[in-house]
Amino acid sequence: MANVPKLPNQPSEKEIQNFLSKVDEIENVLKGLNSDNEEKRDLYMSKADEMIEKIQKEKKNPVDVNDEEEPDMPRTKTGFSKTSINKDCYKNDTESASIPGPAITECMDQNAFMAAMEADAKERAERRKERETTANTLKEQGNTEFKQGNFQKALELYNQAIDQIRDSSVLYTNRAQARMKLGLYSDALKDCDLALRLWPNCLKAYVHQGHAYLALKDFDKARKSYQQILSVDPKKESMVQEYIADVNRAEEASQMEAKATKLFESGDEVASGVVDVLNRVSQKNQLPLYYSGGFRVLASVIKDADSQTLFRTHNGFQLLREHQLLSRCLSSSLNTLSKEEKDVMSAALEMLTSACKDNETNQQMLLSLPEFVHQISSILVFNFKGQGRVLKIACLNLLHEISLTSAGRAAIVGKFDVDRLTAALFPLMMKATTYGSTAAAVLNNIALDRRLKSLLREKIEEKILPAFESLLVTTTPASIVSLAASAVTNLVGDQVIRNKMASSKKLWDNIGHLLNQDPAFYKPALKCITAVTQSSEEARQMIAQNKGTSILMRFLAMEDEVVIGNAALCLSHLCQVKQVCSKLTKTNIIQKLLELARDGRKSACQTNCAILVGKLVQGDSRHLDRLRELHGIEILHGCMKHIK
């Protein structure tokens, strides 16, 4: 049979084999990416990256396999053989020499090719859309399970969603969060890494990554992950600072645990005593008096950070859940407790107060127990008699101790129902009891937390202001009203709350009433007024129109420079209201302010008086004339250069 000439553009055997090997390689990678084995998927993800990189390089530097030299061909200096093609060899061939059959076109019809490509793309897009819909449904189901605390079920649903689509960073961060709740910290880190490979600016991935490293006690990597958040969103600085503070706190706690353990193992008397008493109070079937005595002994021996750490590491907080009598008391209705059981709870609260004193780690661990938080809230609102009042005092003392630290305040606001808590504290403040001032101090402290302000914004008019107004008109001791006013002043830092307070005429009437009563009310009332008038035009108008300037002028003649300074600062705010500066020209205020600026002992008072002089001079030229008459510019220049 005659040799059939090779068709034009027909691929060589080598090209075919090369193509088929690439197909096999791609098929293996795709199978690997769909594997149920996490490690295998990661391996084939790396292979896919390598393959893509290789293809991109080949596109930049294409190599024609036909240009490769045959091994049997002679080599030359140029690397090519001298073989040439005889273009005339088929010159005399006739049509009969051609291969029978239909004509072979060199390329497919362009329109048909494009139509086929479009159909394929449409089909793949539809399949992708179906998978995305399924994945989104599974994700929402997982979110629901997660919120309900069913973390294992949530994890299973997120796994199913990822089986549908593997390029969603949201699914990986959600699964990382579920794995964190289940203690699978290393697996959570893998999910964070995958999310960041899909979207390098995924903020949630950095957050969960930091949490996972923190749980694994890799503190340096945790800090690095949290700091990466700022490269994504510089406005998250306050959040990052809180996370870094958590890392520092955890690192310090870890170091303290190592130190306390070493101390205990060395046979230190105090350390051994703490652990010994803990073991004794854990014994079952003892009388309530035995346990209350043991808890009070613990309260007396827990004196420093080492003993507090040993209390934590030797399951001191687990007594609330596992102790035979104490756990039953915490879960029981308060009206069913006997006198002895109430005493056991009081002693336990005293023990916890010692364990939490200036120790943020212990404070956070204690308030992470939801059943304990619930019972504390119940104690605050329950109407006790006799022994029950001692229990309420112990409860308030514990809350007050925790509220003294920033982490403690954040834990209270984060774990308690703040509506229920504030509703419980105000009635306690109105009673002339031993715990009224403690309740006011707790409210004042937690009002410093920014999250409390955001939680109370919508309810300030409905709950907080009416309760505060009632407090102002009752015969509540001045010390308690002072703390309550300070708490409201702390809340005023929020603009929404400040605006709502400014529009309450009843509130300002009551505060004005305070300024005409006991001098003990002056400081808190003035502080509150000054904070609101600083940025509220409505408050300034209301005070100016209700004889507020004359009341404030009276305070400039007092001896307490804190009161004088606040009165001067508040008057400087009122100077923004028309007619106030002109009205004050009828007084001798410039001379009084110059005397205070010159002779004052507190720099804050001197500064505020000088500021008020400046505001008055700007508001009415007659004040400037009076200032010049008294050589006030020289006086101010002389005294202000000594103020730091």
TrEMBL record:
Residues 56-81 are annotated as: Disordered. Residues 16-43 form a coiled coil. One of its GO terms (biological process) is sperm axoneme assembly. GO terms for cellular component: A band; centrosome; Z disc. PROSITE patterns: TPR, TPR_REGION. TPR repeats lie at residues 135-168, 203-236. It is found in: Cytoplasm, Myofibril, Sarcomere, A band; Cytoplasm, Myofibril, Sarcomere, Z line. InterPro entries: ARM-like (IPR011989), ARM-type_fold (IPR016024), Armadillo (IPR000225), TPR-like_helical_dom_sf (IPR011990), TPR_rpt (IPR019734), TTC12 (IPR043195). Pfam families: TPR_16 (PF13432), TPR_8 (PF13181). Its main location: cytoplasm. Keywords: Coiled coil, TPR repeat. The keyword Coiled coil applies. The keyword Coiled coil applies. This is Protein unc-45 homolog B. The lineage of its organism: Eukaryota, Metazoa, Spiralia, Lophotrochozoa, Mollusca. The gene is LOC106063208.
